[in-house]
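Sat 14:20. Reprocessing the chain from the morning session after the first attempt stalled halfway. Input below, unchanged.
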Amino acid sequence: MKIFVIGTGNLSHSLVPALKNAGHTVSGVYSRTKENLKNFAEKFNVKAVFQKDEIPSDSDIYIICTADSGISDSAKIFKTENIVLHTSGSTDIEVLKRYFKKCGVIYPVQTFTKTKTVDFSNVPLLIESSEDKTLEKIKILAQSLSSNVREMNSFQRLRLHLSAVFACNFSNNMLSVSKVLMQECGADFSLLKPLIKETFEKALNSDPITSQSGPAKRNDTAILNLHIKMLENYPVLKKIYSFVSLNIKEYDTFFKTNPL
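Finished this time. Tokens:
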């Protein structure tokens, strides 16, 4: 397939090589940031399209790899009768239906950075389409990239994206906090690595609900109060510690009484 990509962000740095490795032709890449586009095109040996009116109309599929807020604006800059996809977990397919008859979503459930190329072969790819015929073509593309392809509608995908924020973004932020707290007392963050590894292995191989431990789970009020007192100079962290501890203590009843 001939694939045109819009955007040169984190995802594009892994998606473009994955497309090429799967035997597809990347017909070009467009970005509003000219310097980034130039560097990206040179790095991956693809054609840089600097002007939006030069975006070709004959590619089989167009993939919008921008931030969620930029999807609608990107959809407005070109016209095609062929398939247009976005890659967002939290953006409804309707944003593309306004502009294109053949459209859909291909959402990779993974975190991406420009400095590391992700192997797509086992990344879950969630797909959605405006029509059955288009869905089949999207599925062919997705299956050429990954062995784990599933259909999921916009509502389900949004719920999964919310879950992913807790699992990935929030957990990484907590690790960042723990690193700073260790550094402030002159300790090496590497001391926590075996603990972190064991925590995530238990969550992945067992069940994060049943493997929960710590002072909040034990309702150890003395330790909880001591930790909260230590965070007096960090009001935001103090609130986070208190709220998360409360959620751990009342976890069994929380989701029963507060359904999303």
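The chain is about 50% helix and 15% strand.
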